[in-house]
Design brief:
467 residues, 54% helix, alpha+beta, Beta-Lactamase, 9 helices, Heat Shock Protein 90, kinase activity, transferase, single chain, 11 strands, five-stranded mixed sheet
């Protein structure tokens, strides 16, 4: 199987070869046309000159003699033409046969005899008149059927050899340039293939050296490097996932085990307070499993949404009323701003879960005296075929601790926690925001986050506006 470089090289060489041959054919045809015109014009002038010389010689000699115009006949014989002079009665006065040239690889005499034999030579009959009276005629026989003289023939031969001599180096140059160009084009692709193969073996830290410019190869290099970065990030998250899940399960199980061992050994009395602690750890495990089930359903294709045309502002206000008590207990203000008639196709139950996860997250990281603001507004996105498509935007912003730039890209990853110790005091299991993202995407929407450490966090949800 041929490589892409060889295929491209042969294609470029073929195109160059075709272009050279086509150009040569056009130039040769153009040259032949103009050379033919040049030969015909010279032929007419030559015939006129022959007639004029013979007339003057006839008038000077007072008639036809074997020497009348003989100098001219000898001259044209050297030019590769045979010429015969006849009087009015058709009697031959003199004749001169084409004289072979010593540098002619195909002597004019032999070519003339062969062309005469093959009926390929050309003849001209030139009428000779003096004072309006016909006095004879001259017969000029050209060696070449195209009426070429020896000089014309050599010129054409030199032109043909020149064209052939020019074609060969041009074709060789085109071949070299084609192979060089094909290698230059395919080399980045070869490097990318090699990189992809090494990435498949687990070397995700490799990167393609970006080519200059903004062409397709440069864009492909950037895309491959971006893919490598994403794979490396996902591989790191995958490795951390096992440790995070183990930590989330190990903590409540270890607590339960220690409590039960203390009770069984008689170290502790089974008081309601201690039994309540065991119950809380069990509830913690149940909550973790419940969150995992919710995440599994959100990520699976079997997630079914009961979409209805709802007023997003009204659905959001209902959820906020449920969250007023915990916000009031912690001393965090909860504000709500909304535009009326902000309709979208949503599942009210899933929408409730989305907002509760975001509000609980905001409440957890906002200190007493802080504020959480929820806004609902309509936005115009873009124009398609003259029609403007809109969306309903829901913003949940707080005045809490904020998220560092290092952690911000990973907040929607499952089990991700900015605190590596994963203590309960600094957050939950790290699943809530992952569920939010998956459910918002199931509604055909998007969720974005912006934050600055120490200045709070803002989540922006956009869902398509209902027609």
């Amino acid at each position: 199987m041929w490589s892409l470089q060889k295929k491209l090289a042969f294609i470029l060489t073929g195109l160059a070869f075709t272009a050279v041959l086509l150009s040569t054919w056009i130039l040769t045809a153009f040259d032949h046309y103009h050379f033919r015109e040049y030969v015909d014009q010279n032929k007419r002038l030559r015939n006129e000159r022959i007639a004029q010389v013979l007339v003057k010689s006839y008038e000077r000699e007072g008639g036809w003699t074997p020497k009348t115009g003989a100098e001219m006949g000898e001259y044209f014989a050297r030019e590769g033409m045979s010429i015969r002079l006849f009087d009015m009665n058709g009697q031959l006065v003199w004749q001169f046969t084409a004289i072979p040239q010593p540098h002619d690889s195909n002597p004019s005499g032999e070519r003339l005899q062969q062309n005469l034999k093959d009926h390929l030579s050309s003849k001209d009959l030139i009428e000779i008149s003096s004072n309006g009276q016909k006095i004879g005629f001259a017969e000029v026989t050209y060696t070449d059927p195209q009426s070429y003289t020896t000089l014309d023939y050599h010129y054409r031969q030199a032109m043909t050899q020149g064209v052939i001599s020019a074609i060969i180096p041009v074709i060789l140059l085109a071949l070299a340039v084609s192979w060089r160009l094909s290698r230059r084009i395919t080399q980045p692709l070869t490097d990318m293939i090699s990189l992809a193969q090494r990435m498949r073996q687990g070397h995700l830290n490799l990167r393609v050296q970006l080519t200059n410019g903004g062409d397709e190869l440069s864009q492909l290099s950037q895309s491959l490097n971006h893919l490598a970065e994403e794979l490396q990030k996902q591989d790191k998250l995958r490795k951390n996932l096992t440790a995070d899940v183990a930590h989330e399960l190990r903590t409540p199980l270890a607590t339960l085990k220690s409590h039960l061992e203390a009770l069984l050994d008689g170290v502790w009395e089974p008081t309601p307070a201690r039994l309540k602690g065991c119950h809380e750890e069990v509830e913690r495990l149940i909550g973790l499993v419940s969150n995992l089930e919710s995440l599994s359903r959100a990520e699976s294709d079997s997630l079914v949404l009961n979409l209805q045309k709802e007023d997003v502002a009204d659905a959001t206000r209902t959820v906020l009323q449920l969250m007023e008590a915990p916000f009031s207990d912690k001393g965090v203000a909860l504000e709500f701003q909304a535009e009326s008639c902000s309709f979208a196709m949503i599942d009210r139950d899933k929408w409730k879960q989305i907002l509760i996860n975001l509000l609980e997250n905001a409440l957890k990281y906002t200190d007493a005296g802080g504020k959480v603001t929820v806004k609902v507004a309509k936005k115009s996105n873009r124009t398609i075929n003259g029609a403007t498509t809109g969306s309903v935007a829901v913003t949940v912003s707080d005045t809490g601790r904020g998220i560092s730039d290092r952690d911000l890209p990973f907040v929607f990853e499952r089990f991700y926690r900015a605190d590596p110790s994963r203590t309960r005091a600094t957050g939950g299991a790290g699943i809530g925001l992952t569920i939010v993202k998956k459910m918002v995407e199931a509604h055909g929407g998007t969720v974005e986050v912006s934050s600055q450490l120490g200045n709070g966090t803002e989540f922006l949800i956009k869902v398509p506006e209902a027609n």
